[in-house]
Every structure is written in C-alpha cells, then in structure tokens.
Amino acid sequence: MSLYDGVDLRLNVPHSARMYDYFLGGITNFAADREAAGHALAVAPWLRTGARANRSFMHRSTRALARAGLDQFLDIGTGIPTSPNLHEIAQGVAPHARVVYADNDPIVLSHAQALLTGTPEGRTAYVEADVTDPARLLASAGLRDTIDLTRPVALSLNALLHFVPDAAGAYAIVEHLKAALAPGSALVMTHVTADFAPEDITRLIRIYESAGTAVQARTRSEFTRFFDGWTLITPGVLPTPRWRPTPTDPPTADPEASAYAAVALKP
C-alpha cells in the first residue's frame, strides 16, 4: 500500500509546504511545486538560506524552551516532516515531552502519520486542522488526548501567519489560541517581512499569489503585535538567524533571512 493511498495530492497545483520542502533540499515535492519554487528563487535567491535559517531557529527555540522546563508543544502549520523535527528536539531534552502537530494538507498528514513517532516516555500526535479555525483545532480529540491545556504549552507558529492575511483575521486567530493557553506558556513565531528586501518580497508575493497562495508580509511592529500582553524573552524580536545563534549556524545577512523571529511567555 502506498503512503499516498486515498490522498488527493493535487500534483498540478503548487503548494507552499511542498515548496518549502524543496527550499530545504527535501524530496517530497512535485513538478508544479518545483516550477513555482524556481520562479520564487529567480526573484529571491536567498530563499534557500531563509528556509534553513527558519528551521535552525525552530531547533534553537524548541531546545531553549525544553531546557527551561516546558514539556508540551503544539506546532501548527507543521509542513513536510524534515528531520530533526520539533518532537525530536524537544524529546531529546525531555524524553517525556508531548508534541502535537497540526496541518491542513493531506500530504503532510500522510507523512506525519508515517514518520512523526516520538519516544516511549513521551507522546507525539497529529491533528488535521486549519489555523483559521482555532476553536475546532483546540477542541480536537487528538490535541485534548495529548496535551493538558491547564498546563503550560509552547505554541509554535513558525513561517505560518504570513499565509493568513489581515482579511482572514490573523490577529484574532492568534489571540484565540493565546487565550486557551495556561500562564507560563510560550508563543514561538517567525514571519516574512519586507523590511530588509522590499523589492524581492513584493515580487515573491506576486509569484505565490499567481500560484493561488495569499501572502502578507508584515513589518516589525506588525509582527510584534502578535505578542501583545505576553513578555518577550531575550533577545526580543530579531531577524531569524540573529535569535540566539549558535557557533554551528552559518552566518546569514539580514536580507537573506527576510523574516522576524521571537519567543514570548504568558504572564
């Protein structure tokens, strides 16, 4: 039986998750994804570096929160699994950690079910859900059976909200999710910005929109607004590769990142 049995892959339609997989050097992408990604790279050749910088931030922030004692993680907009995944990082620090992945793409669901297995001490689950319906996501059995929302949770919204424009209620969605979390919870986010490479980003947005995917870049202040009421942890809001870099992270100029990153805690 194929991993994709019963899954509508829509191979002729480029998808942002599969394009991201291509930027990371993955193999779970198809001709339409590679063609759209090629157009994107033509106007923004730093995209591969930016994708890797985003991935490295996820590793660093997850490790930092796990070391600080958080042992529950909710990753929305999971994307195609690329090892090491969030649960591997979290459970590498805290083997008992519980992780829920959520995404609305059937191909992501297929790969998640096959590949996202955690430690015997912890638990890893996948929820098919859309961030634009946070109430349904939070009420899902897979999430409720895995995560205790009365205890702190690290909510990861990496490289996701730029696909939710203001017209779709991006800020209200995040506030709904934040309100459901206990004090001590964390909000982890990265987001595309035009602050560093405005012309590249403008052209890039047009390419994504021509492929059927809405994108809204946000300024530093617009990004920071997502964390309203929570306490940003050091070093605050910075370009993705500048957030607590490690000696093993390759040097990356700000325009190559073209994204902001931050982590905040709920008082």
Tell me briefly what this model is.
With 267 residues, this protein is of the alpha/beta class. The protein contains eleven helices and eight strands.
List the keywords.
267 residues, Rossmann fold, eight-stranded mixed sheet, 8 strands, 15% strand
> How many domain modules?
1
| Estimated share of beta-strand residues | 5-15%
Shape: globular
| Proportion of helical residues | 25-40%
Please tally the helical runs, counting DSSP H or I stretches of 4 or more residues.
11
Summarize the biggest pleated sheet: 8 strands, mixed
What is the CATH C level class, in words?
A: Alpha Beta
CATH topology: Rossmann fold
| CATH homologous superfamily annotation | Vaccinia Virus protein VP39
Question: Radius of gyration, Cα only, in angstroms?
Answer: 17 Å
Instruction: Give the N-terminus to C-terminus distance in angstroms.
Output: 49 Å
Descriptive notes:
By secondary structure, the chain is α/β, with parallel strands linked by helices. The protein has a single domain (16-265), classed as Vaccinia Virus protein VP39 (Rossmann fold). Helix content is 38%, strand content 15%. It is built from eleven helices and eight strands. The protein has helices spanning 16-23, 31-43, 47-67, 86-93, 106-115, 134-139, 141-144, 170-179, 198-210, 220-224, 254-257; strands spanning 72-76, 98-103, 123-128, 154-158, 186-192, 231-232, 238-239, 259-265. Strands 1, 2, 3, 4, 5, 6, 7 and 8 form an eight-stranded mixed β-sheet that branches. Helix 3 runs parallel beside helix 4 (86-93). The longest helix is centred in the first third of the chain and has 21 residues, at 47-67. It starts with 15 loop residues before the first helix and ends with a strand. 46% of the residues are buried. Residues 1-7 have low confidence and may be disordered.
